[in-house]
Write a structure and sequence with these properties.
alpha/beta; six-stranded mixed β-sheet; two-stranded antiparallel ribbon; 10 strands; globular
Amino acid sequence: MSNVNLEQLPATIAGNLLEIGAVSLKPNEPFTWTSGIISPIYCDNRLTMSYPAIRDSIAEGFAALIRAQYPDTEVIAGTATAGIPHAAWVAQKLNLPMAYIRDKAKGHGKQNQIEGLIKEGQKVIVIEDLISTGGSSLKAALAVVEAGGDVQSVLAIFTYEFAQAEQAFRDEGVELQTLSNYTALVEVARQRGSISDSDVTLLQSWRENPQAFGK
């Protein structure tokens, strides 16, 4: 069992993501997401797979959170595709069964949406890499519920902290927790001198109203 400090975890994970470029902050040279949103941040947590020490710190963070708050968990379920490797590493650390959830049922064979075994009434943690609007993560969690599982929480590596996502989870009665978040990331970047105080203002305004950013 590790000695993960859950209070320090948001800053630790944020620092790791910045260090490897899994998250990039460019308030003055923003990115354009596929949705058309102009954004000062780009997040690609898939990069963490290529860094053994960092992916292990993420898995340890998830495992510590589950041990502390969801000790009765019986299955770890990853979202396809980015949540799958992290779910596997967490399941291994906790010696628990693992499953994964497709975005939709297969069109052939048994037409499964969930691969692996989730039995009726089993307590399930859903592992995700990133929360933006929360739509796909909620869809995965509700697929587990439909299959008879009891979703304890969705756990993700990082969230943009959009009010829309937080409200969506509340509306569905699904708990959400993340290892790190936008607020922690911006603060760590500021402390490291990667961004200026004026950049912080821009970054905060984007989180509050992403549709208006850059207009």
